């Protein structure tokens, strides 16, 4: 028996077949209904070394429990669940613990008809969300919530500046920050994306190519959330107030930068790294999102058979929000 899956191996990225997974002790088989595409999935094929075997990509997913292994106590057949892609990180901490990794490499991921996973990596899917939204809020929501709240220490009344307005994480950060009482400013090269960000709740949306010093001269930026990388990093730091905090959770452009250390310590700014988060934070995020009725923004829904089209959209950064596969 086999399942349909999006696979990366020696033949490249393709739609193919993989053996049907079976639950071992402490594991659950989930029949997936939807799976969310993340930028990480785009990078894995280029960065995998010593492939040697086929890998099912994908970190986010939602579905129905189909089978449970020995000693599983938290789940029953028929439960509707979402995947927690942050493996082996359960309690909130300053950094990730030993053994932490993201689902989808080296473990088989969610771009398949079924997945087998530890019972500890599942949560009930939020009842107010659709299946597509349930597969879009895990990785992006957890990443954005930790960057903004845990690591960014955002307070009500803060002004938050977020370069790059189109990613799934940023569309959730905009909503989280507004719900928590912040003023939110974003950037984008695309006029359409700037308009979409404003409709989502951003207070201002400026052109990435504009003079940020001029555009922001009347603003006091308390917190910057950076994920673009070298293309914007130093401008982001210049925009930040003295004593402000800059949180970095990604680098979609080049990740090696030149940094003026004298400027940094003279202005007494903080630069903080952030990546994914714990199960504690995932649950906090889900409670917060439901309380404020926050929904992931979905740009495109594609059948798994057309998943490679979704990869191309992400590569072009043409989407606003998430790309989701129906399985």
TrEMBL record:
Residue ranges of domain Enoyl reductase (ER) in the record: 9-325
Pfam family, one: ADH_zinc_N
Source domain of life: Bacteria
Signal peptide bounds: none
Coiled-coil residue spans: none
Protein name: Zinc-binding dehydrogenase
């Amino acid at each position: 028996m086999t399942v349909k899956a999006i696979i990366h191996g020696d033949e490249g990225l393709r739609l193919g077949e993989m053996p049907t997974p079976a639950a071992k002790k402490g594991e659950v088989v989930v029949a997936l209904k939807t799976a969310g595409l993340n930028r990480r999935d785009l990078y894995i094929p280029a960065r995998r070394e010593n492939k040697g075997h086929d890998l099912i990509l994908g970190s986010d997913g939602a579905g129905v429990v189909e089978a449970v292994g020995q000693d599983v106590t938290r789940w029953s057949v028929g439960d509707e669940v979402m995947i927690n892609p942050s493996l082996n990180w359960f309690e909130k901490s300053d950094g990730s613990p030993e053994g932490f990794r993201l689902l989808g490499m080296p473990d088989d991921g969610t771009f398949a008809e079924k997945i087998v996973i530890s019972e500890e990596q599942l949560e009930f899917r939020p009842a107010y969300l659709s299946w597509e939204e349930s597969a879009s809020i895990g990785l992006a929501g957890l990443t954005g919530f930790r960057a903004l709240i845990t690591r960014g220490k955002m307070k009500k009344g803060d002004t938050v500046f977020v370069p790059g307005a189109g990613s799934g994480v940023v569309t959730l950060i905009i909503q989280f920050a507004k719900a928590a009482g912040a003023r939110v400013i974003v950037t984008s090269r695309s006029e359409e994306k700037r308009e979409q960000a404003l409709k989502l709740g951003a207070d201002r949306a400026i052109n990435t190519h504009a003079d940020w010093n001029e555009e922001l001269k009347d603003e006091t930026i308390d917190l910057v959330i950076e994920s673009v990388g070298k293309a914007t990093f130093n401008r982001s730091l210049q925009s930040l107030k003295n004593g402000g905090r800059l949180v970095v959770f990604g680098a979609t452009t080049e990740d090696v930068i030149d940094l003026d250390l004298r400027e940094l310590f003279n202005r007494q700014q903080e630069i903080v790294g952030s990546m994914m988060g714990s199960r504690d934070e995932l649950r906090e995020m889900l409670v917060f999102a439901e309380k404020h009725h926050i929904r992931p923004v979905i740009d495109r829904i594609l059948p798994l058979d057309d998943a490679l089209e979704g990869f191309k959209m992400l590569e072009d950064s043409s989407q606003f929000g998430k790309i989701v596969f129906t399985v």
